[in-house]
Design a protein that fits this description.
The protein is about 50% helix and about 0% strand. The chain is mainly alpha-helical. It has a domain of about 45 residues.
Length: about 70
């Protein structure tokens, strides 16, 4: 999270930025890591909406291409 979003103000985060970030992560990380990292970012942006720092959360309600977890055989 920090390398990509550490210096970005919450008001500057866009849907396109999030989608590109998820796409980049999908190439190097597993589904669980990508989904959790996205969840952390979305939660931070939820807090920013609640604090009225931004009007809406660009991570919510949009399909950013999150991977699906594959069930492993037990």
């Amino acid at each position: 999270m920090l390398p990509r979003w550490g210096s970005v103000q919450v008001a500057q985060v866009t849907y396109s930025d999030i989608k590109a970030w998820v796409g980049d992560m999908r190439e190097t990380a597993g589904a669980t890591v990508v989904i959790r990292a996205f969840g952390v970012l979305a939660s931070i942006l939820d807090d920013a909406v609640h604090d009225r720092r931004i009007a809406s959360n660009p991570a919510r309600g949009a399909k950013v291409g999150l991977p699906k977890k594959m069930k492993k055989r037990h």
